[in-house]
Amino acid sequence: MNHPALAAVAEDIARCMRCGNCQAVCPLYSVTLRESMVARGKVHLGEALLRGDVEASRVLADRFDACLTCLACAANCPCGVRVDRIVLAARAVMADSGLLPLPKRAACAVMPNRPLLHAGARLLSRVQGLVFRRRELGMSPRFPVGLGMRRVVPSLPRAGFRELSSEVTPASPPAPGRPGPSQGGAAPSPAPARAPSPAPARAPAPAPAHAEGRIVALFTGCLADYVYPDVALGAVRVLSANGETVVAPRGQHCCGYPIIAAGKLDLAREMARSHVRLFSGLDVAAVITLCGTCGEAFIHHYPELLAQDRELGPAAAALASRAHDISRYLHSVSSLNPALLGPLDLAVTYHQPCHLGRGLGVEREPVDLLRAVPGITFIALRHPDRCCGGSGAFAFGHYDLADKVRRQKLADAAETRADVIVTGCGSCRMHLEEGLSHTGSAQRVLHTVEVLASSVSAGR
Amino acid sequence: MGPNLPKFIDALKKALGPDEVITAREDLLCYSYDATPDLPRVVPVAVVTPSATAEVQEVVRLAGRYGVPVYPRGAGTNLSGGSIPTVPGLVLSTLKMNRILEVDPDNLLAVVQPGVVIDRLNETVAPHGLTYPPDPGTVATATIGGSVAECSGGLRGLKYGVTRDYVMGLEVVLADGRVARFGGRTVKNVTAYDLVRLFTGSEGTLGIITEATVRLIPAPAARKTLLAAFSTLTGAGDAVRLIVRSRVVPATLEIMDRVTIETVESYARAGLPVGAEAVLLIEVDGVPEAVEREAETVAGIVRRCGGELRTAADDHEREQLWAARRAALPALARVSPTTILEDATVPRSRLTDMLLALHGIAEEYDLTIGTFGHAGDGNLHPTILTDARDQEEMERVRLAVGAIFRAALSLGGTLTGEHGIGLAKKRFLPLEMGEEGVWVVRAIKRALDPRDLLNPGKLIPAAPAAGADGEVDPG
Predict the structure, then answer these.
(1) Shortest CB distance from B26 goes to which of A11, A60, A78?
(2) Percent helix, strand, coil in chain A (nearest 5)?
């Protein structure tokens, strides 16, 4: 097999020594105990494909499709093999052989087409009641629609982020008389155990790194745009309270990761070019993403996809260096003024999205931010970094596997007795909410920035 | 005429259910390897995943009826080719037999199915203040069944022994499908031959382990970790000898040579003393007072032998020292695409001689060999850094491996301390056991598996004259 995508990962394939350490961390292996499910097996299949020992086939496409790209194997690999890159390369081979699984084919048809996606979402928000039965959290199909009758999908709000927000939101720092930035500490401190009183006293800290007057661009991503607009609205509220002017350019569209995950690299490259042109043209200090996977697209995939592009390659790299996940931005780039945070009487835990944690290295930032909110009790999950099993389109194509992986996560979450499972990814959230609706749990799922936005509102 | 495979597979599906019989070629490819490098890849005809002893019996009976060889497999993390097919046959995965049947703190034992991962057993017994000591590098993935079949070792051999010292009883499915039980729940047991020990380390050639009763010990209450750097190999070797002479038995006494130290430092910046010829990582454990005293004795010896000492003051520092040791294989593995990990083992008093012999072999065959390992029990891991795609170099690697075996044997050592004979080393068996010893091995195999159906082609070298049916010698 002579495919450029596969040739590009040949060295990674050669480095795997088949030690099997990936078995200890692969979520799909733990629920199937099958060698073709674990990273080592996938690398072996990649090698077989490269050497021509096996042909592209439906079964092979399905094996490469059955990967959460949770990066746990790569993080645990003694040889540093980037198994995720091998899997994505093999998927590109499968896609070029016309072997895309149905949910991914659908995603490739709709996601890159912003007007179609938009029209579809608006239409669906109106007609969803005909197809789906409303439940407490989301809706389940009234009749088979190819999703399985057990599946609960979130109900789409009538209006998305764009209908609810303008393109530019000016900074709105706290009114005079409220505690100003000069009183806040730059580094959020751990919250005490659930405090009944409002904000506990904070020691004055050195001059914080707030950058008032900064202009930042917001990339919402599809889920915060259509399904969870409160996340994008919350981000705007927190950023503008913190003194930044927020631009959410209207020309943005899907980040393209679902297309990369499906292996349609040419299409993904087009989407990358469009975003690099759009965001590079803005005179902003930072581009902020609301989901680890979108962040990975901007920070890792665009530069890689456009590495050979003379015109846009350098721009993609420059854009990547200015892109930040919202929690990293508020934690370390333009520190969130702690004086803005009002009290919330909440017990929360945090589920680390794979692409945010292992992908972008954003691990402690969301936790530090949550702990800084007065009144919040933080209870850590037993394994915060274990994949929830959602993985975007994966949960649609492999519902049973995704469900099995999720059970452990929900059990861990239940053990914390937290009111809210906080996370930083719309796909994790959708998958967790769907699982909670089956268990009848009262736990809710929120994005980190939604919690911060509530706290900022409580502080006004 | 070969076996009627379609009928055989139908019969398996009927016996186990279709989901427990894997037949897609794409899946089967993934059972043609284990963690052993440089072996031929033979794809099995099917993989079965039974979940009960009765199902294993049924599979073995069907395999016998159709004349198909059976290759038992746990996690497939062994380093001797123990779990891969040599001629196309049936892979029997024990992964779905993964229940811990009993933890008995009164008799200090646990009863487990073969697919239980070692770490999981330890997590389960930890609340009782107990531990299962055998700790091969793969504790997070390897199964009890696989590690009993291979008699795995680990870092704590010197003080705590190896897997065979912790197996009290076994349930085994024999080659004809009958079930036999050996040993039991008593500390003392001299009933007939010690068949538990025979099957422990039998590498799947005599029967399929379907249940194990394993011994647990109280987890040590305290431990102390020291790192000692030496400017000469002799200094390190002397220290090992004198520590043992002083009647201190450390839980671990690990060594890393210069190549390993430099590689670890460039990869992990673990704070190892670059420029040292060898470092020893020493851990003593037990009751707190004894641990303090033993640590002082060890420190004194290290200084007398010219070593420089670092002591871990707390858990964090201990973790740092251990991180350096754990980084040894990963660091070496990143230097080149292919890593050949051997386990030459000598009496510990000959450790320095073996290290020097390894340096000579690296020079003679123009190879990079990093050596680390379990100095306390004489079990070294010379690690050859190469690239399987470079045929010329691989030829030199194979010659060097032969030279390593000969060097170990000439120092009174053994072919394999903990990885097993499997495929790659069986040619060398007569060198260690003599033709008479090999005759005993063959006689046992013939008595228990006369049709050579269980893991054929492993452990036993091809017979000189008698028709070696179906044996593949990879050379």
Answers:
(1) A60
(2) 50, 10, 40
